[in-house]
Design brief:
Strand order of the largest sheet of chain A: 4-3-5-14-6-15
CATH topology of the domain at 8-173 in chain B: Beta-Lactamase
Order of helices and strands of chain A: HEEEHEHEHEEEEHHEHEHEEEHHEH
Largest interface: A-B, 40 and 41 residues
Shape of chain A: extended
Number of helices of chain B: 9
Radius of gyration of chain B: 53 Å
Oligomer: heterodimer
Number of helices of chain A: 11
Number of domains of chain A: 2
CATH architecture of the domain at 8-173 in chain B: 2-Layer Sandwich
Number of strands of chain A: 15
Order of helices and strands of chain B: HHEEEHEEEHHHEHEEHEEHEE
Shape of chain B: rod-shaped
CATH class of the domain at 8-173 in chain B: Alpha Beta
CATH architecture of the largest domain in chain A: 3-Layer(aba) Sandwich
Structural class of chain A: alpha/beta
CATH superfamily of the domain at 8-173 in chain B: PAS domain
Helix content of chain A: 40-55%
Largest sheet of chain A: 6 strands, mixed
Distance between the termini of chain A: 115 Å
Strand content of chain B: 15-25%
Distance between the termini of chain B: 17 Å
Strand order of the largest sheet of chain B: 2-1-6-5-4
Largest sheet of chain B: 5 strands, antiparallel
CATH topology of the largest domain in chain A: D-Maltodextrin-Binding Protein, domain 2
């Protein structure tokens, strides 16, 4: 009895020390010694390992991050095919992208149809290619509102809030302006408030969150989101679809060397023929790229002229 | 009752305290470890959150090559969170895009925490050799590392300060809990052991000669049950004890009556002699009452009556049943009284009596009647051992506050085989009807009750010595009531 009592007490103490040892046995974190006095003043320069000889500009049809992800695969593909590293430049506004092209800072770019028609006749920008979507080189403007909204037609937006994408956006601004002009109104008076989102996906987001009553968005972006992030469009509904417009083209700076231009054109026009290219096109929801023609954008140009005339009319009335 | 070496309460308190200390110490370390780890984890999480948040925010600015906005964001982080010691952003080719160090940038820092592929973040402890500061450096990729990474350095001294603060609060809590635990141990030990102590006290105070005090415990548990059982047991013990005591008294009385039976013929003879003298004197006075000798006869008659009265008083004293009160007793007187009862028998059996009772023998505290019964028993046994005469030597002396009384006879002696049994109740070698077998056992108990001892030495054919020693009055050992 006495012996078992002693054994019990002894095992209690041993258990105690075992637990104490285990509790204290912490893994020590590795500490790295760094000499903070080894300093450099001029570090604020971004230098790239790779020297990019070609530069592609993108106007943010969607948010910058989404745009980057969207075009990165295509960019890498083009780089490999033309055997020249291609970098990407994004700018907040379409005008900034146009400027990059004009000045030659960027060699080629994906730009909006609205931005394209704003380029001057003697500008440095020329068409290179257009994507084919569902067998046609067209896209549309979707007028959207919240799914619970009472708005059923565009006229119902009178004195309501509305989101435009960019000053040069065709689907995101020009088309609703055209609709308002046809009503012999100007947007500032027609809508109670206008905001600029600088990205079509953000326009969808602000409508879904009821921050604005409506927006006009690019059908390509809307369909892309519908396919890849259907949750984001659950709360919005399309109340009007525009007539077809010439799809946003790929343009080049006129002074890009013809060799590179040809390489680029060849790559784009043939990419639907190889597996990798096909896959990238599928992700972008494009069928292929074809030769671009300026007449594709005549409808947009007509619409722009109509709006301009209407604006002038209103100004001098 | 045997003394308790370690009290139950002490054991209880010690056990609880040891358990509290053993497991409390494990708890302290375990909880401290968990708390500190979770605190560290939380702070690290915060750092990661800051870095990831910044990483997400700068994407747009980096893509737009808007480095001014990037710089503004990086500067804001340092202002908004005091724990952030530094923040910088490096490109995918490990060049610094922007930082919030004062003017110069420590280049070694760039390679100190590099992200491996597909890792959401990486944390490293970095030690500034010069300022001796420790930083928790968090690296977070921007757009999966395509645009580079954000690096945020949390000053570990701030984290350590918070940890120490938590530690101090925790230690204080632990001390309070320890003290509360030990205080609780004392309280619980008292609550649990005090009823047990009551029962133990009840055992200690249990006196079968007195009415037992009931133990009253109302704990509604096993201890109350135990107390009830104790009370019941005490009542039964007391009743059994009383029955036993009554039986013992009856036995003593029986033995005494047996002794009286033995003595009565001798006493009758002792009374008969003065009665005859009384009768003669009365006859003579009756014949010539006017004679001058009448007064002389009356004196003789008074003497005879005194003698009768002495004998009768002796017998009455001897037959008295009990007297529990101890008083100073003269040993010499007790022995003489015993002899006065057995004188006739001694004479009848022609036994020569040699008494050697020292004058300085002193007195003792005791019951004279019981002591007298003892010596009557011893002398009667000697007489029985010498039916055809012999010598009876009674020696009494004081040796170092011990009164020693030896009763020696020259009788037939006791067989060696019986020596161990003579003090056993109902053991007798006498003929049926002559002895009860209770004389020596009762004498043994009486002497023991007086704090003394009795021994026997005997040799067959030579004789027997009964040696009695009793504590003298001055030794103070018998100053108590008989048990």
């Amino acid at each position: 009895m006495l012996k078992s009592k002693k054994i019990f007490i002894l095992s209690l103490i041993l258990l105690h020390f075992f637990l104490l040892y285990n509790c204290n046995n912490q893994e020590k974190e590795e500490i790295l010694e760094v000499d903070f006095s080894e300093t450099e003043t001029d570090v604020n320069n971004v230098s790239k390992k790779v020297q990019f000889s070609i530069n592609m500009a993108v106007s943010a049809m969607t948010s910058p991050k989404e745009t980057y992800i969207y075009y990165q695969q295509l960019l890498n593909y083009i780089s490999r095919k033309i055997n020249t590293p291609v970098s990407m430049k994004q700018r907040k506004t379409y005008q900034e992208v146009n400027n990059l092209l004009e000045t030659g800072e960027s060699n080629f770019a994906f730009i909006c149809s609205g931005a394209y028609i704003r380029t001057k006749k003697n500008s440095n920008i020329e068409l290179l290619a257009v994507p084919i979507v569902k067998n046609e080189p067209y896209y549309y403007s979707y007028i959207i509102t919240h799914k619970d909204s009472s708005i059923k037609k565009f006229d119902d937006f009178y004195k309501r809030t509305f989101a435009f994408t960019d000053l040069l956006s065709n689907t995101g601004r020009l088309y609703p302006l055209y609709l308002i002009s046809k009503l012999k109104q100007n947007p500032e008076n027609y809508f109670s408030k206008i905001i600029y989102t600088h990205a079509h996906d953000f326009s969808i987001h602000v409508v879904a969150r009821k921050i604005v009553d409506g927006a006009s968005v690019d059908s390509l972006v809307f369909e892309y989101i519908k396919k890849n992030n259907p949750d984001k469009i659950l709360d919005v509904k399309i109340i009007k679809i525009s007539p077809p417009f010439g799809i946003p083209p790929i343009v080049v700076n006129r002074y890009i060397d013809s060799k590179t231009k040809n390489k680029l054109r060849k790559t784009l026009f043939t990419m639907h023929r190889d597996e990798e290219g096909k896959k990238i096109l599928k992700n972008l929801m494009f069928d292929k790229f074809i030769e671009a023609h300026d007449y594709l954008y005549n409808t947009v140009r007509d619409m722009d002229n109509f709006v301009k005339k209407a604006e002038l009319k209103q100004k001098y009335q | 009752m045997k003394d308790v070496k370690v009290k139950l309460r002490t054991k209880f308190i010690l056990s609880i305290t040891i358990v509290v200390l053993l497991f409390g110490s494990i708890n302290i370390i375990l909880i401290r470890k968990i708390t500190l780890e979770s605190l560290q984890r939380e702070l690290e999480k915060r750092g990661v959150f800051i870095a990831q948040n910044l990483g997400e925010h700068v994407i747009e600015y980096l893509l737009h090559e808007d480095f001014l906005s990037v710089q503004k964001l990086v500067d804001e982080i340092k202002v908004l969170d005091k724990d952030v010691a530094y923040t910088f952003i490096i490109s995918s080719d490990e060049k610094v895009i922007t930082h919030n160090f004062n003017q110069t940038f420590p280049v070694e820092l760039i390679k100190a925490n590099l992200l491996s592929e597909e890792k959401e973040y990486n944390v490293k402890l970095i030690f500034d050799k010069n300022k001796r500061f420790l930083y928790r450096d968090i690296a977070v990729p921007i757009l999966n590392g395509e645009l580079g990474m954000v690096r945020v350095g949390l000053a570990e001294k701030n984290i350590t300060y918070q940890i120490n603060k938590a530690n101090t609060i925790f230690t204080g809590m632990v001390i309070v809990f320890f003290l509360a635990g030990i205080f609780g141990a004392f309280v619980f030990a008292y609550l649990i052991t005090s009823p047990i102590s009551k029962i133990v006290d009840g055992f200690a105070k249990l006196d079968l000669d007195k009415t037992a005090e009931e133990i009253r415990i109302k704990t509604h548990d096993e201890i109350e049950y135990l107390a009830d059982k104790f009370n019941e047991m005490a009542r039964r013990l007391q009743s059994t004890h009383n029955e036993l005591k009554n039986a013992q008294t009856k036995l003593i009385q029986t033995e005494k009556l047996a002794s009286i039976g033995t003595l009565v013929s001798g006493l009758a003879h002792e009374i008969n002699n003065p009665l005859s003298g009384l009768k003669n004197c009365l006859n003579r006075i009756k014949k010539k009452p006017e004679k001058k000798e009448t007064l002389k006869y009356l004196d003789l008659m008074l003497n005879a009556l005194d003698k009768i009265e002495y004998v009768v008083k002796g017998l009455l004293d001897f037959s008295r049943t009990k007297s529990d009160i101890f008083s100073p007793v003269s040993v010499k007187e007790v022995i003489e009284k015993a002899f006065s009862l057995v004188g006739y028998k001694l004479e009848k059996h022609s036994i020569e009596v040699i008494k050697d009772i020292k004058n300085n023998i002193g007195s003792l505290m005791g019951d004279p009647h019981k002591l007298e019964q003892v010596f009557v028993n011893l002398i009667l046994n000697s007489i029985d051992a010498m039916p055809d005469g012999g010598k009876l030597i009674v020696e009494a002396f004081n040796n170092n506050n011990k009164i020693c009384i030896f009763v020696e006879d020259t009788g037939k002696g006791i067989p060696e085989a019986y020596l161990n049994k003579i003090f056993d109740p109902f053991f007798t070698t006498k003929e049926t009807g002559k002895g009860t077998g209770l004389g020596l056992p009762i004498s043994f108990n009486f002497i023991k009750a007086h704090g003394g001892e009795i021994f026997v030495e005997s040799k067959q054919g030579i004789g027997t010595i009964m040696k009695v020693w009793l504590p003298s009055h001055s030794s103070g050992k018998t100053n108590r009531r008989e048990k």
